[in-house]
């Protein structure tokens, strides 16, 4: 793996991100209630006013990615004609999946159906047979190909620019050069775009990490009687910080790749044990039902805002989910691009939209269906536990009600531990690359800078947990940032199509020669 030499920190992006973070987090810490009220109103306004935009954009991404994979462009190789993939298909998919879903998918895989069961879409009675039928199908939809298409959209132009045109920067601003003049993107315009992207990446992953800690704390309480104190939560963060800092220090091949592989292995064991020792027949039948219901409602759920009925389900679930995927998409675009040398456009689309989707479906089919079975069979009242004790206790109760329950809960918190570590690893790597100058194609950012961003991502949730500040406020900020990202990704997609048409019929060496001439003209 290539190490960086002669690189430097982009001070504008670095200091700009820190200033923006401090400017957002300090008011949240000092005025938590006021901040939460204001941001909640802004978030509700964004979901109401631009909900249609999030839905239409996501559906458009779904259509475009299918077109890109099945057209003649799908065969375009990202790199030189004789370039081989840097990673095996399993390692590549593991790093891609772990970065895209993190610890969230295991948590929501167990509990999400409960929320849909007690608060279903309009026209369905809560806790009815119909609500039970639709509950797991909605998870298939929200975590399915539409979400992965949004992730895929920025990955395609970034990977093409990085490996095919040999643009020596991992910056999404540069993917807009088919629409915005490159001279502007090399200047302040590009820096501002990358600054906003970097801030959104940091904010979204801080929120994710902070929300994952309570589940691990609950698991430790149920399994080992460890009380849920401030010290416990801080201890959890510190321990997994030591794991991922070591991993990010080692780099892509020695650290992040291996951690991602172990993450997938443990998750497979968890899901496999639930499937084999749990209600296997029910899981298979419910998966078939869920898939059928999702397919039958796919287009309606993709575009329905419920503007007349105002039930709230579409707004706070579908629209919110799609906005969240859009906010995280820039990170995924950069990450997938970086690890996809030697792959084709079709391979990226297939890995994300099919492999990523099937991985998620496996989790929801096994964990979600078994939880619903336990509720219907009267083994555990997950609804009552959720309403009276909270979601983390409901998750623990569902898993421990199954055969090998405590083993399953231990595997779950282990998986979440590894997931949190791999999420921070990949995020810190991309943040360091995004805010570095002088990186050549294939090089890694310097070690101290990767470690710095890993520590920064951890330090903020630690501070917010200590002062008991709400991480949901930071989460809402991330959703607000999804609005400008929609327009940015539209520009990126238009630029990507222009690049493909421009390069059609040219050899790799001809493309590089032309790009070098263009760069010389810009620098004169």
UniProtKB/TrEMBL annotation:
<feature type="transmembrane region" description="Helical">
    <location>
        <begin position="448"/>
        <end position="467"/>
    </location>
</feature>
<comment type="similarity">
    <text>Belongs to the BCCT transporter (TC 2.A.15) family.</text>
</comment>
<feature type="transmembrane region" description="Helical">
    <location>
        <begin position="90"/>
        <end position="118"/>
    </location>
</feature>
<dbReference type="GO" id="GO:0005886">
    <property type="term" value="C:plasma membrane"/>
</dbReference>
<feature type="transmembrane region" description="Helical">
    <location>
        <begin position="231"/>
        <end position="252"/>
    </location>
</feature>
<feature type="transmembrane region" description="Helical">
    <location>
        <begin position="146"/>
        <end position="163"/>
    </location>
</feature>
<feature type="transmembrane region" description="Helical">
    <location>
        <begin position="316"/>
        <end position="336"/>
    </location>
</feature>
<feature type="transmembrane region" description="Helical">
    <location>
        <begin position="12"/>
        <end position="30"/>
    </location>
</feature>
<keyword id="KW-0472">Membrane</keyword>
<protein>
    <submittedName>
        <fullName>Betaine/carnitine transporter, BCCT family</fullName>
    </submittedName>
</protein>
<dbReference type="InterPro" id="IPR000060">
    <property type="entry name" value="BCCT_transptr"/>
</dbReference>
<keyword id="KW-0812">Transmembrane</keyword>
<feature type="transmembrane region" description="Helical">
    <location>
        <begin position="264"/>
        <end position="284"/>
    </location>
</feature>
<dbReference type="GO" id="GO:0022857">
    <property type="term" value="F:transmembrane transporter activity"/>
</dbReference>
<keyword id="KW-0813">Transport</keyword>
<keyword id="KW-1003">Cell membrane</keyword>
<dbReference type="Pfam" id="PF02028">
    <property type="entry name" value="BCCT"/>
</dbReference>
<feature type="transmembrane region" description="Helical">
    <location>
        <begin position="348"/>
        <end position="367"/>
    </location>
</feature>
<feature type="transmembrane region" description="Helical">
    <location>
        <begin position="192"/>
        <end position="211"/>
    </location>
</feature>
<keyword id="KW-1133">Transmembrane helix</keyword>
<feature type="transmembrane region" description="Helical">
    <location>
        <begin position="50"/>
        <end position="69"/>
    </location>
</feature>
<feature type="transmembrane region" description="Helical">
    <location>
        <begin position="473"/>
        <end position="497"/>
    </location>
</feature>
């Amino acid at each position: 793996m290539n190490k960086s030499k002669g690189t430097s920190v982009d001070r504008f992006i670095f200091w700009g991100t820190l200033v923006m973070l401090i400017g957002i987090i300090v008011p949240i810490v000092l005025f938590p209630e006021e901040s939460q009220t204001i941001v909640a109103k802004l978030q509700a306004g964004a979901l109401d006013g631009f909900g249609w935009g999030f839905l239409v954009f996501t559906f458009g991404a779904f259509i475009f990615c299918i077109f890109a994979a099945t057209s003649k462009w799908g065969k375009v190789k990202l790199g030189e004609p004789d370039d081989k993939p840097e990673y095996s298909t399993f390692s590549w998919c593991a790093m891609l999946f772990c970065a895209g879903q993190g610890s969230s998918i295991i948590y929501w895989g167990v509990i999400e159906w409960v929320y849909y069961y007690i608060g279903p879409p309009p026209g369905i009675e809560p806790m009815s047979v119909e609500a039970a039928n639709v509950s797991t199908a909605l998870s298939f939809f929200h975590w399915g190909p539409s979400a992965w298409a949004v992730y895929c959209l920025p990955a395609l132009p970034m990977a093409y620019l990085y490996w095919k045109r040999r643009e020596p920067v991992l910056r999404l601003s540069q993917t807009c050069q088919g629409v915005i003049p490159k001279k502007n993107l090399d200047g302040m315009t590009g820096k501002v775009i990358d600054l906003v992207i970097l801030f959104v990446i940091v904010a979204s992953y801080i929120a994710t990490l902070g929300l994952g800690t309570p589940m691990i704390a609950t698991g430790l309480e149920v399994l080992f009687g460890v009380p849920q104190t401030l010290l416990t939560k801080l201890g959890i963060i510190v321990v997994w910080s030591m794991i991922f800092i070591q991993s990010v220090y080692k780099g892509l091949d020695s650290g992040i790749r291996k951690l991602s592989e172990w993450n997938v292995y443990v998750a497979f064991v968890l899901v496999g044990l639930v499937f084999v020792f749990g209600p296997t027949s029910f899981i298979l039948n419910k998966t078939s039902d869920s898939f059928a219901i999702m397919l039958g409602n796919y287009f309606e759920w993709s575009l329905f805002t419920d503007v007349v009925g105002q039930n709230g389900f579409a707004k706070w679930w579908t629209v919110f989910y799609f906005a969240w995927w859009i906010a995280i998409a820039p990170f995924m675009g950069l990450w997938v691009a970086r690890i996809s040398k030697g792959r084709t456009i079709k391979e990226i689309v297939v890995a994300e939209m099919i492999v990523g989707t099937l991985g998620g479906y496996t989790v929801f089919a096994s964990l979600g269906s078994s939880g619903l079975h336990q509720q219907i069979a009267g083994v555990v009242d997950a609804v009552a536990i959720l309403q009276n004790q909270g979601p983390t206790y409901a998750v623990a109760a569902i898993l421990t009600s199954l055969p090998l329950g405590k083993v399953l809960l231990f595997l779950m918190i282990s998986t979440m531990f590894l997931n949190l570590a791999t999420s921070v690893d990949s995020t810190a790597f991309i943040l360091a690359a995004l805010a570095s100058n002088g990186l050549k194609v294939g090089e890694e950012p310097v070690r101290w800078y990767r470690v710095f961003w890993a520590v920064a991502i951890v330090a903020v949730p630690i501070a917010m947990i200590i002062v008991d500040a709400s991480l949901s406020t930071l989460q809402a900020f991330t959703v607000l940032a999804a609005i400008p990202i929609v327009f940015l990704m539209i520009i990126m997609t238009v630029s990507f199509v222009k690049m493909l048409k421009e390069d059609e019929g040219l050899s790799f060496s001809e493309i590089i020669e032309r790009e070098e001439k263009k760069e010389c003209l810009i620098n004169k």
